[in-house]
Amino acid sequence: MTKHEEYYVKMVEENQEVFNAFMEIHDKYAKDYKTWQTEFNHQGKEIVEIIREWERRLCQHSERGQYGKFSGGLAEKFWITVRKDFPKIDFVGVK
Questions:
Q1: Hey, how many other C-beta atoms are within 10 angstroms of the C-beta on 5?
Q2: What is the residue range of 45's domain?
Q3: Collapsing DSSP states into helix, strand and coil, what is residue 10?
Q4: pLDDT digits (tens, 9 = 90+) for 42-78
Q5: Which of 12, 43, 77, 83 is 20 to 30 A away from residue 18, measured at CA?
């Protein structure tokens, strides 16, 4: 398992209840976005904050060292992993 995948698994495990609740809303939003837009944005805001915090944790070590130029790619790989479970995550906050 790669480093970004490890961080993703740890993030979900440590925030299991929040992610489970968001998964339900996410699935409802994917089927009927007009009805679930408000709730999706409300819960999604918290989820995106958690994801960004874990993204910072993942990239903070590589930014300091000689591999600083690779941290952007590492962050993108992390978000690709997130999008596998939450393909609509980029729509949080969109009206």
A1: 12
A2: 3-87
A3: helix
A4: 999 999 999 999 999 988 866 555 555 556 688 899 9
A5: 77
